Amino acid sequence: MKNLIQQSVNDSITVKKEFFSDNIENIESCASIMAAALKKGRKILLFGNGGSAADCQHIAAEFVNRFRMERKPLAAIALTTDTSVITSISNDYSYEDIFSKQIQALGKKGDIALGISTSGNSPNIIKAVRQAKQMEILSVGFSGNNGKLKQLTDICFCVDCDTTARIQEVHILLAHILCDLTERIMFNE
C-alpha cells in the first residue's frame, strides 16, 4: 500500500510540474482576462459534470466569497447547482442542453464561460461552449489531453495525461492559481 500511495503522489507531482511549466504564460494571461472582465461588472459562468461539477461550485465560492484576501465579492455562478433548472431542462429538452440554456438565460457579452471536461468531449459542455461563442462570451476550457474542447474554446488548459484523477488534481490547482492571481490583479496586492 505504501508503494501505491507514493506512486500516486509522484504521478500527481510529475503531471502538475509538466502542466504548469508548459502553461505559465497562458495562466497569467487568463487571470488578467478574468480580472478585466470582473472589473467591468461581468461574471464567470462555470459548468462541468460529476467531480468537475463539484469543482465548479468550489471555484465559484472562491470568487464570490474570497480566496486569500479580504475583498468585495466577485461575480461567479456555478451552473451545476440549481437542481430544478437542471432537471426541468433535462426532462423537457435533453441533458445536453442543461448548461447552454443557462448560458442563454444568464450570460452576457463580455462574461466568461468556464467549462470543465476531463475527456474534452462532454456533449453538454461542448454545446454550452458553442452557445457562449454565439453570444460573444469568452470561453475557457479545462480538459485532458484529447477532445473537442481544445479546438472550441478561446483559452484551453489541456492536461497531458490519461488518468482522470491526475487531470482533476491539476484542474483544481489551476483554478486556485487563477483565483489567487485574479484577486491580486484586481486588488493590487
From TrEMBL:
GO terms assigned for molecular function: carbohydrate derivative binding; D-sedoheptulose 7-phosphate isomerase activity; zinc ion binding
Domain SIS: residue ranges: 34-189
Co-factor note (free text): Binds 1 zinc ion per subunit.
Entry annotated with the keyword Cytoplasm: yes
Binding site for Zn(2+): 58, 62, 168, 176
Catalyzed reactions: 2 D-sedoheptulose 7-phosphate = D-glycero-alpha-D-manno-heptose 7-phosphate + D-glycero-beta-D-manno-heptose 7-phosphate
EC number: 5.3.1.28
Transmembrane regions: none
Pfam family, one: SIS_2
A biological-process GO annotation: D-glycero-D-manno-heptose 7-phosphate biosynthetic process
EC category: isomerase
CC cofactor: Zn(2+)
Family recorded in the similarity comment: Belongs to the SIS family. GmhA subfamily.
More info: The reaction produces a racemic mixture of D-glycero-alpha-D-manno-heptose 7-phosphate and D-glycero-beta-D-manno-heptose 7-phosphate.
Stated name of the protein: Phosphoheptose isomerase
Gene this chain is encoded by: gmhA
